[in-house]
Design a protein that fits this description.
By secondary structure, this protein is mainly α. Helices cover 55% and strands 7% of the residues. It contains 15 helices and five strands.
């Protein structure tokens, strides 16, 4: 009898080890109910990244094509533009213009309200991951950073996330005092967008320097800690129903979602604490990287509140 029990324990241990080796994913303690990673064979690893990159490149190329071929579909740059005649303006840029000029222009209001409505629907900082060209370059730079970090060539340093709010306030104050939109002269997003449309400028040296800083010193530093552009979209994101939904039944507590996330703290209340079903933080960029990496399929895009009705 004892011999049989020992054999059963040996078989169970072997099965457990086989499952661990087959998935090759380490799991930790957490609120998820799965004891081990069980990949869904139909899961598409880079689905949302590929869709997002295609849309990002499409809109940025469309800026160039509209100017170069004079087709007037998407005119201007990411700071201020017109899409099929509809005015669009970045909320942070709009506030700077109002403070610097002390004039409230009708087109400025229309463009800001239009962008507000668009990102209420799409999800706030969706702009950062689905439209911003610097975000795409920074993602590529991040891959180099992780490659170097894995070989212990570089170490990644972090900063306080409050810096972005300080910069937000600082550049608004400068706009008010100087009568000039100071931030727009150094904004890497605007620099890249204008270079795509009108040709390269010396400001691209600043963009390259920023990327090198991120690769060699602080992974995704601009987007994570310093960029004030995302603050406006973050506030809009608090109201947006489109969010990442967490299913504790499928979660194996592998924490890979946080490893790939640009802002891993947004997942804390769900995958770490298990207190929230949705990622409610406005800082979430809805990039889909966490969904792509989760072959347990514990994460998905969903419409908060509306998913109970639809």
């Amino acid at each position: 009898m004892k011999k049989r029990q020992q054999q059963d324990r040996t078989v169970n241990a072997a099965v457990k080890n086989t499952n661990e080796n087959r998935s090759g994913v380490k799991t930790f303690k957490g609120p998820g109910l799965r004891k081990e990673n069980i990949p869904n064979p139909k899961h598409k690893r880079n689905k949302w990244r590929n869709i997002r990159w295609a849309i990002l490149l499409f809109f940025n190329v469309l800026f160039f094509a509209s100017f170069y071929f004079d087709i007037q579909v998407l005119e201007g740059s990411l700071s201020a533009s017109r899409l099929l005649g509809f005015h669009l303006i970045d909320p942070f840029a709009a506030i700077q213009v109002i403070l610097s000029s002390r004039i409230l222009m009708v087109n400025l209001v229309i463009g800001t309200v239009t962008v507000f409505i668009i990102y209420i629907v799409l999800g706030g900082r969706t702009f950062c991951s689905w439209v911003c060209p610097y975000h795409w370059l920074a993602e590529l730079g991040e891959k180099i950073n992780l490659f170097l970090k894995k070989r212990k060539i570089v170490r990644s340093h972090s900063f306080d996330r409050k810096f972005r709010y300080l910069f937000y306030a600082l550049f608004l104050i400068l706009a008010l005092i100087t009568g000039f939109t100071v931030f727009e002269t150094i904004n890497p997003v605007s620099a890249i967008s204008r270079s795509i449309v009108y040709g390269p400028s010396l400001l691209l040296i600043w963009v390259v320097a920023l990327l090198v800083f991120e690769i060699l010193y602080s992974r995704r530093a601009w987007c994570r800690y310093f960029c004030p552009v995302g603050v406006s979209y973050q506030l809009i994101g608090l109201l947006a129903p489109l969010r990442v939904k967490w299913n504790k039944e499928n979660c194996s507590n592998c924490k890979r979602c946080q490893n790939v996330c640009l802002v891993p703290h947004v997942l804390k209340d769900s995958v770490n604490k298990g207190t929230k079903e949705y990622v409610d933080s406005g800082a979430c960029t809805r990039c889909g990287l966490c969904i792509d990496i989760c072959d347990d399929e514990a994460l998905e895009f969903s419409l908060k509140y509306l998913d109970k009705i639809i």
